[in-house]
Structures are given as C-alpha cells and as structure tokens.
Design a protein that fits this description.
four-stranded antiparallel β-sheet; binds adenosine-5'-diphosphate
C-alpha cells in the first residue's frame, strides 16, 4: 500500500493563483520522506493534499488504493482518526486538559480511553515526561508540549505520520529529541513518516528528500 499522487495540481482564489503544478509522487509504506524548499514553495499545501486534509484541484490522490475525493466525509474522518497522526509547528493542545487527557483525545473519539491509557503513559515515559501526566499545557515547557502533541499523534498507532515543521518552534536540543522520536517510530514500528522541514540536517535523516521550487518537484 502507498500514497499516490497522480498529476496533482492546486489552484486557489479569484483571480486564480497556482500553488502546485503537476505533482506525481508515490510514497510507499514504511518510508521516511522529507519535503524541503523555500517558504512559499508549496510544502504545506502538498502535505495537506497527501494527508487528505485538502483536495486537489487537478489530478487525484490515492491512499491505500482509495481515491480521497471518492470517500464519504464520515469514512474519511474515521480513516484519519485511526490511520493518521498529525504534528504541526504549534502543538494545538487543549489548554484546559492535562497532558494525559490531551494524548487520549483521539481515543476518546472511538471510546477507547480506558484501553489506551497504559500506552499513553508508556509514551509519556518514553518521551521523558514521566510524572507530568496531570500537568496542563501551560505547566510544561515548549519542548514538552510538543512531545505531548507527538504522543497524541501516536496514540492510535497510526500507519502514517504527517509533520509540518514539527521542530520550527523549538530550540536545537528539543528539535533533536523530536527528530529522534520520529526516526524511531519509523524504524521500530514501520510507520510512514512524511515531514516538512526547514532544517537541511534533519531533512537528510530521511531516506528520501523531495525538493519543491514554486510548486513543482525538482
Ligand atoms: N489559503 C491560501 N490563500 C492564498 N494563498 C495561499 C493559501 N495557502 C497557501 N497560499 C500560497 O501558496 C504558496 C505555497 O504555500 P505553502 O504551501 O504554505 O508553502 P510552504 O509551506 O512551502 O511555505 C504561498 O505562496 C502561499 O502564500
Ligand atoms: Mg509551510
């Protein structure tokens, strides 16, 4: 199984602006791919198309053999919740929920809070957050908040992880921790990791680098 993009283009607005042009790309299961390129080159837009958060204007996207544009909204929602984890530059944790409750949010949607609690605590341990499960986001450092957000992305053991500049708001020590986690998840669990990054060094850790210039793969 794989994610397949066939002649994908994206135009938006009125008058129309072209953001992506004729993208053909296959990402096989278990790959670790990084997207690099200048700000404005279309990296985030491409990541959203790959991950079904956005719909192509031209061509089509297939995930595990299903055309994203053919899926019913409910099926798409279910598929995303079970199979995909998302990590962004800013963590979007819910301020009134504890670290543990934030991590369990995806499990709440499928009524699996109880079954998943052990794994959530396990992730907190692995990420150096032992004993901090009851803290609110504001009682954690930026690096710790991002690790909670990553644990939330991993709680359903997704097949795919999509990360848009996950280290963009972190210092170098915390950025390294985050990258190490992503590398480990890819190697140990075979999770497909697709990551947008500004950092050339981190991009090189991926087995495949995709360079975007003005909405095209070069
Ligand atoms: N919703 C939008 N409305 C208008 N322009 C947009 C929108 N989203 C993206 N763009 C434009 O599309 C281009 C690519 O954006 P983006 O994919 O965010 O690039 P990157 O992630 O590489 O910085 C940029 O020029 C950006 O300004
Ligand atoms: Mg971006």
């Amino acid at each position: 199984m794989a994610i397949n993009l066939v002649n994908v283009g994206k135009v938006i607005g009125n008058p129309q602006t072209r953001i992506l042009n004729n993208i053909n790309l296959t990402i096989a299961d278990g790959e670790f791919v990084s997207f690099v390129g200048r700000s404005g080159s279309g990296k985030s837009t491409l990541l959203y198309l790959l991950s079904s958060l956005d719909i192509a204007s031209e061509g089509f996207v297939e995930i595990d053999g299903m055309k994203v544009s053919d899926l019913k909204p409910d099926d798409l929602y279910q598929f995303r919740n079970l199979k995909m984890g998302f990590i962004f530059q800013f963590h979007y944790l819910l301020a009134e929920l504890t670290a543990l409750e934030n991590i369990l949010m995806p499990a709440r949607k499928t009524n699996q809070m109880k079954q998943k609690e052990g794994y959530a605590l396990d992730l907190l341990n692995q990420f150096g957050l032992k004993g901090k499960e009851k803290r609110l986001p504001r009682q954690l450092s930026g690096g710790e908040q991002q690790r909670v957000a990553i644990a939330r992305a991993l709680i359903m053991k997704p097949k795919y992880i999509f990360a848009d500049e996950p280290t963009g708001a972190l210092d170098s020590v915390n950025a390294k921790i985050v990258i190490d986690i992503m590398t480990r998840v890819n190697q140990e669990q075979g999770t497909t990791v697709i990551m947008v990054t500004h950092d050339a060094g981190f991009a090189q850790l991926a087995r495949k680098q995709i360079h975007l210039v003005d909405g095209k793969i070069v």
